[in-house]
Amino acid sequence: MHQKISCLYWLGAGTASCPEIEFDDYGKVVLVDARTEACNRLGSLASAHQNLCVINACIGIGGEETSQFNIYNEHSLSAKGKPTTLLELFPGLKLEESVSVKALSVSEVLNEVHPENNNILILDLLDSCGSVLLELKETGLLHFFEQLFISCGVDSLFEGAWEKNQVVEFLFDEFFNVESVNDADPDIQLIEFKLDRKGKSLKESKQENQNLKKEVEYLRSEVARKDGLLIEHNAAFSQAQEKHVKDLEHLKSEIAQKDGLLLERDAAFTEAQEKHAKDLEHLKSELGKKDGLLTERDAAFTEAREKHAKDLEHLKSEVAQKDGLLIERDAAFTEAQEKHANEVEHLKSEIAQKDSLLIERDAALNEAQEKHVKESEQLKSEIAKVHAEHERSTNSMSSTLEKLDDEKAKLLRQKQEFLKQVAQQTASISILGKQNLKLQVDLDDLRHKFDEKVASEDALKSLIGELHQKLQQAANFYQKLEKEHPELLGRKSE
What we know:
Blueprint: E1 5-11, E2 26-33, H1 36-43, E3 52-56, E4 58-59, E5 66-72, H2 85-89, E6 95-104, H3 106-109, E7 119-123, H4 129-139, E8 145-153, H5 164-173, E9 176-182, E10 188-195, H6 197-396, H7 401-484, H8 486-493
Parallel strand pairs: 1-2, 1-7, 2-3, 4-6, 7-8
Antiparallel strand pairs: 5-6, 8-10, 9-10
Keywords: Coiled coil
Coiled coil: 195-222, 365-421
């Protein structure tokens, strides 16, 4: 009969065949595996063992809720991690499927472990036994177990997996000694560790003693430091006490001096008070005199104010007269401006008419000149033709001389008539020139009259500007009067 042990926790139980365990020897058995098939097979044992609990989950790291679990054709080698050296040891290893499995942390699985129980932990996690051991150490659960059974590779079989030596060294530092090694498989071994509580207690005691020694040394140094401070404080207190006595004597002498000064100040204050009373009487008499002068000044001011009111009325009447004059001038200016505008329009229309007449005359003159040039050219050509014909006739026959003379006379007459027409046209052109000259004179006269109108308008504008300036001065004077003596205007309005 084996001694009954409190609890057994098996992470990665699989078929729960290695190591061989009698479940009835434990008060509680917790089996954890990621494969559903394995959990179903383990669950069939629950009817025969009331103390058996099966959990279908994988051990998660970093708070993950689910994790991908790889199931290989060799089910005992199934794991979360990616195989490395394992493929060299098992060349025929094939991935059957990758399933999503619920993930539980180590602390969640071992939440009911009690440190006073005799607990055993079996880790059959080839890919993550190192991370599980680290989490057990961080959470303080590692030393809750008396025995550990860990399955690990002699070499690292998965990415990030610990090899055998790493596991042994880590647990040795945590006071777990190797009890046995199952090397039936030389590459994957099952190592049994047992907690050396005496060694752990001894090391903890040594550590505690060292901490106490350090604390004693620290306390001694603090006592020495405070003794030195106390000596310094005592010396400073004695020095301060002596200084306080000297300061007290000095203050007493100063108080005596200030008492004497206070008596002197009291006498001076009494004397000053008497002088102040005399000065007050003198000021009262001066105030009476000033009151009389103020009454006289008020009367003079009233008289000046009345005079000022009269002047203001006079100015207002002048302003009203100038306003009327300005209105008359504005009306006259408006009338003159309208008349001037009408005259300008009339002059513009006359100038436009004369301009059109001048354009017509110029066109007629140009036409007559062009006609004269054409007729002259035609006459020259005819004369040339006649002369040529005359030459031919003279050379060919003399009998026709008389006829030619007649024709010559006829041509001379035509020439005279043409010259007469040219003279008439020249006279017409001269008349047109004189008419143009007369139009130019009329235009100059109109321009002169227009300039006179403009000058008259400028003079009228200047007169209006002067009148506006004077009115502005009167208004400024009125505003100044309102600001300086508003009471006069107020009295006038009443």
